[in-house]
Amino acid sequence: MKRIVVSQYGGPEKLVLQDSPAQKPDPGQVLVHLQAAGVNPVDGYRRAGSHGYNPPLPFTPGFEGAGVVADLGDGVTGLEVGQSVYVGWSVTGTYGQWCLAASHRVFPLPSGLSMEQAAGLFVPYFTAYRALVHRGQFRKGDKILIHGASGSVGLAAIQWCVFLGLVPWGTAGSSHGVQRVLNAGAVGCEDHGETDYLNKLKEQSGGFDGILEMNAHLNLDKDLDVLTVGGRVVVIGSKGEVSLNPRKTMGIEADIRGMVLMKADEGELEETHLALVQGVSRGVIRPWVGKVLPIKQAPQAHELMDRSPSEGKIILSTEI
């Protein structure tokens, strides 16, 4: 069997396809024969050893994928050999034809989704749900501003807002991206490259009860200017330090809350999966696959991700 291995930190050329026999699952683990894997920016950070990510070498990238259960470790219940599933936070990485994962991070494939769609579910949809529900604790009718809403996490957040009865607004980096955000269900969207775009959004909306922040190093101080009283900013991503005036939080009693998907517990993961199943069945959750590439083209997938981060989810097919 084949899988991608990173033996040295560096550029996309460090993603090397190698032979790798599948391992036997330990107790509580599941062996999945993968058909597809999702590509995410964090995969690039880990490959490069940047932004605080330096996994032990060698390693196989990838946090999400979809395939068929091939073997079950002792004590695993609720799954069957031959069952179609999707995976999050695998033990061995998902850029390959197999992976091992803890059983509570392997989920039955929602009816109506292809393997390619399901392979890109975990990181964007579980991240967005955790930001809105578990960390943001937003309520029906709340107005939510989603920065970078044309990316995969942002589009997932818009769909979750529709599912949860929240009111989504967004920002994007181009007119094409703005239209994509509006088509996804946002009430309004502005190009974040334009002057005074946040004030325009505030005037249109009256202010936001919550903000999902993908680039806190650029926006956090300005976000506080467009929150309503008791508003909350949930920080999903940041590439550096930020300077802000803490007094801005005082008059409106604002909260700034960090989040990371890996802190989700077993109950929260199961809750998110069940919500996904409902959302897919209602036609509200619609994973958007931008491009499918064969796994041998993993380097090209990373180059494409770096060039066009908002052009849809990139999926690797494990067929050789």
List the helices and strands and how they pair.
Layout: E1 2-5, E2 16-19, E3 29-39, H1 41-48, E4 64-72, E5 84-88, E6 98-102, E7 106-108, H2 115-119, H3 122-135, E8 143-146, H4 152-164, E9 167-172, H5 175-184, E10 188-191, H6 197-205, E11 208-213, H7 216-223, E12 227-235, H8 247-251, E13 255-258, H9 266-281, E14 289-294, H10 298-307, E15 313-317
Parallel strand pairs: 8-9, 8-11, 9-10, 11-12, 12-13, 14-15
Antiparallel strand pairs: 1-2, 3-4, 3-6, 3-15, 4-5, 5-7
Helix pairs in contact: 3-4, 3-9
Task: List its traits.
2 domains, seven-stranded mixed β-sheet, 10 helices, six-stranded parallel β-sheet, Rossmann fold, Quinone Oxidoreductase, Chain A, domain 1, 320 residues, alpha/beta
Structure description:
The protein is of the alpha/beta class and 320 residues long. It has 2 domains: 2-121 and 287-317, Quinone Oxidoreductase, Chain A, domain 1; 124-262, NAD(P)-binding Rossmann-like Domain (Rossmann fold, 3-Layer(aba) Sandwich). The chain is 31% helix and 27% strand. It has 10 helices and 15 strands. The chain has helices spanning 41-48, 115-119, 122-135, 152-164, 175-184, 197-205, 216-223, 247-251, 266-281, 298-307, and strands at residues 2-5, 16-19, 29-39, 64-72, 84-88, 98-102, 106-108, 143-146, 167-172, 188-191, 208-213, 227-235, 255-258, 289-294, 313-317. Strands 3, 4, 5, 6, 7, 14 and 15 form a 7-stranded mixed β-sheet that branches. A 6-stranded parallel β-sheet has the order 10-9-8-11-12-13, sandwiched between helices. The mean pLDDT is 96.
